[in-house]
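Subject: Predicted fold for Heterokaryon incompatibility domain-containing protein, 140 residues

User T.R. writes:
Posting the sequence so we have a shared reference for the thread.
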Amino acid sequence: MPSLNRYFYEPLSAQDAVRLIVLYPATDQEVPLTCSIIQHRLSTQALGYYAVSYAWGKHQFSATLEIKCDGTSSNSLRITPNVDVLLRCLRASDETRCWWIDAICLDQENDAEKAEQIPAMGRIFAQAQQVHIWLGPRTR
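User M.O. replies:
I've generated the structure tokens; pasting them so everyone works from the same file.
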């Protein structure tokens, strides 16, 4: 992936707003991960999304997620290897899907935002179309 500028989170637009990632499809697991980040108000049920509960794993941010910011530019967000594998497993081959994943949808460097968003996690999971549990990649 070419060098991209670092992604900076936009402030949430409302008290009941959350970020969702729109994960773009790929038929090959090795294709770089690409998504958009959108805001959704929990007070509206118009948008169907999936949520994931998972083990964070080690806090080594050694993988990159490309975030499309508008029609012409992209930025990058550093993610953990566990989140990288998770996204590759969740990514569909033929359609975009909206996901709530705390490591990406919460600005992890903004303690005030986390203090507001963490109490809303029950509502975030309750309003999701489906909640997936990620224990890690399959091992044999």
